[in-house]
């Protein structure tokens, strides 16, 4: 286990992008530094970035859909508190992940300007924020909603911070497959806030995100391979190559499509969801087939245009599926949603 103080084990002494030699004393380092070399003081935006707001927004949206699509009425204050504490839990997970991954984040172009590797937020500070927010989020969700929702949130934070970040991410090319469970729990938590239980519908929403995660992240990895290789992260593109990764994207997309469409016959589905899901999955499968057929020479020639297009579409794919679930729930009181 890494120490709670200083930079995580294995991370170079980096200050504002400049590597500081460990052989020099503190006075020597300060003498050698120009004013421009000193790390900038953390601002409010750095602490917001520490919580991974983009990831948090997806968590909040899917949790909200899980809550609002449940077949029970929820008091507005309970719903508001539930979503707030789920969001805090997501932010806590992000802070803990940034603390632990600071060493590899510093080596990847996509992540090296994050607050911790850039030196604007100290690792021990990120750890403290992550632990504090975790405790607040779990305890307050239990008080505001119920113990099942709080337990699911606690397990989600643990899974993302420990199982995925500390173990799977650096241990196996299946890191994204298994680790995808962390991002799949929020709609289950939202459903549990409303109902106090787990159902076929909440399990379906979990499965939808779980199966979507591998093709989503592997399509990203196809055009960011050097980042993962430089950081020593065993992403599938690094361990097995892009050709195998393309085949895996197609295989998981083909498995995802019937699962996603089958959601139409659950209690949260309906004609609108069916139409949206069929259209989205036809496009997604076509895109996966397209990148599977491409050679590396073709991909390099056009700057991985098809791979980038599939990655961008995968974001809309998940959002629109959950938006369709939400629309079905909104139509039901008017006798138009569901079957």
TrEMBL record:
<keyword id="KW-0472">Membrane</keyword>
<keyword id="KW-0350">Heme biosynthesis</keyword>
<feature type="transmembrane region" description="Helical">
    <location>
        <begin position="176"/>
        <end position="197"/>
    </location>
</feature>
<dbReference type="GO" id="GO:0048034">
    <property type="term" value="P:heme O biosynthetic process"/>
</dbReference>
<comment type="function">
    <text>Converts heme B (protoheme IX) to heme O by substitution of the vinyl group on carbon 2 of heme B porphyrin ring with a hydroxyethyl farnesyl side group.</text>
</comment>
<dbReference type="Pfam" id="PF01040">
    <property type="entry name" value="UbiA"/>
</dbReference>
<keyword id="KW-0808">Transferase</keyword>
<dbReference type="InterPro" id="IPR044878">
    <property type="entry name" value="UbiA_sf"/>
</dbReference>
<dbReference type="InterPro" id="IPR006369">
    <property type="entry name" value="Protohaem_IX_farnesylTrfase"/>
</dbReference>
<comment type="pathway">
    <text>Porphyrin-containing compound metabolism; heme O biosynthesis; heme O from protoheme: step 1/1.</text>
</comment>
<comment type="subunit">
    <text>Interacts with CtaA.</text>
</comment>
<dbReference type="GO" id="GO:0008495">
    <property type="term" value="F:protoheme IX farnesyltransferase activity"/>
</dbReference>
<feature type="transmembrane region" description="Helical">
    <location>
        <begin position="80"/>
        <end position="100"/>
    </location>
</feature>
<dbReference type="InterPro" id="IPR000537">
    <property type="entry name" value="UbiA_prenyltransferase"/>
</dbReference>
<comment type="similarity">
    <text>Belongs to the UbiA prenyltransferase family. Protoheme IX farnesyltransferase subfamily.</text>
</comment>
<feature type="transmembrane region" description="Helical">
    <location>
        <begin position="147"/>
        <end position="164"/>
    </location>
</feature>
<feature type="region of interest" description="Disordered">
    <location>
        <begin position="1"/>
        <end position="31"/>
    </location>
</feature>
<feature type="transmembrane region" description="Helical">
    <location>
        <begin position="121"/>
        <end position="141"/>
    </location>
</feature>
<feature type="transmembrane region" description="Helical">
    <location>
        <begin position="313"/>
        <end position="331"/>
    </location>
</feature>
<feature type="transmembrane region" description="Helical">
    <location>
        <begin position="55"/>
        <end position="74"/>
    </location>
</feature>
<feature type="transmembrane region" description="Helical">
    <location>
        <begin position="272"/>
        <end position="292"/>
    </location>
</feature>
<keyword id="KW-1133">Transmembrane helix</keyword>
<feature type="transmembrane region" description="Helical">
    <location>
        <begin position="244"/>
        <end position="266"/>
    </location>
</feature>
<keyword id="KW-1003">Cell membrane</keyword>
<protein>
    <recommendedName>
        <fullName>Protoheme IX farnesyltransferase</fullName>
        <ecNumber>2.5.1.141</ecNumber>
    </recommendedName>
</protein>
<dbReference type="InterPro" id="IPR030470">
    <property type="entry name" value="UbiA_prenylTrfase_CS"/>
</dbReference>
<dbReference type="GO" id="GO:0005886">
    <property type="term" value="C:plasma membrane"/>
</dbReference>
<feature type="transmembrane region" description="Helical">
    <location>
        <begin position="203"/>
        <end position="223"/>
    </location>
</feature>
<keyword id="KW-0812">Transmembrane</keyword>
